[in-house]
Amino acid sequence: MIVDAGLARLATPTPSAAAARPPANPAIDASAIQLARRVFYQMNAAAFAAKGITANQLWQQIKLETSAALDAGLRWTHEVSGLGVFSIEPTGYVSRNDDKGVTYDPGIGIQYAQNVGQSLAYGAQLLGRWKPIDTLDIFASMSYDRNVFVSNPPVLAGASAATVAGANVTGTQLPNVPEWTAALGGTWRYGDFAFTPVANFTGSRWRDTTRTQYLSGYATVDLNFTYQFKLPAAKLEASLTISNLFNAQYIGFMNNSYFQQSTLTNAFYYPGAPRAVVGKIAMKF
After folding, report:
1. What pLDDT digit, counting tens, does each position of 194-206 carry?
2. Tens digit of pLDDT for each residue in 170-191?
3. Which of 117, 132, 150, 275 has the most crowded CB, counting CB atoms within 10 A?
4. Is the model more confident about 244 or about 24?
């Protein structure tokens, strides 16, 4: 029996926008951001002035995004005579994000970026493997991910009921984050030949923070065939991969925001990849 365990902690600033890269000249970068804010303010000066918001207040709202994370894992391996080798790997994590950039309307009639997003993520994964014989390896995994807002973004006094309702997100799952994912597969080897089928499942998710647009879960199956043989001076490997074997149709990706109100129109949906067959030949010397 073998037992391994680990623990990791990470705390780091996660800058966004122009701050996401080391500036060649910080003064120039800061001036560019300030100029953009000033132009945006001037274009919407009447709306901001009506709520008593100055250009300097917009500038002072810019903050550095920060995050802190902690994860822990364990691997337990045990061999049973006549049944093979079993291993179990549970992993858990928790992370906190502060001052995330959020684009929304606090009650002015204009949507603009503000560093007011606060969220908490936590979850666990269980990975299991069973090797009954040397030529067969079976594996399965299941993950639970909870990623929620821990506070509502602020709204201005006198904001409409729709604005207040749209900002009421405490405890709700972030957009485009499924709670459940799972996989099941295995590898069978026969001489120089290997066959690996894998089934993947992704649970349902929401497209927006107000939970008006629902995306169903989906499952896909992939197959991989590999054959290796040795040459006098190299090793040749030929493989054939069939992804999305049953040509499942689903929404695979969407470029939405961290805080995505249903009234925003900047989210785009991309279909998942259809069935594809890819062959490859590689030579290793």
Report:
1. 999 999 999 999 8
2. 999 998 899 999 999 999 999 9
3. 117
4. 244
Q: Which CATH superfamily is domain 2-13+65-284 in?
A: TonB-dependent receptor, beta-barrel domain (2.40.170.20)
List all residues 6 or more positions away from 106 whose beta carbon is below 8 Å from its beta carbon.
114, 153, 154, 155, 156, 159, 163, 167
Extended strands (E) in 2-64:
2-13
Residue 220 near residue 200, CB atoms below 8 Å:
yes
Q: Considering the chain, tell me which residue range(s) the CATH 2.40.170.20 domain(s) occupy.
A: 2-13+65-284
Distance (Å, rounded) from C-alpha 167 to C-alpha 152? 6
Report how far residue 159's alpha carbon sits from residue 157's, in angstroms, rounded to the nearest whole number: 6
Q: Would the pTM count as exceeding 0.90? A: no
Give me the amino acid identity at 12. Answer: T
- Closest C-alpha among 176, 172, 164 to residue 119: 172
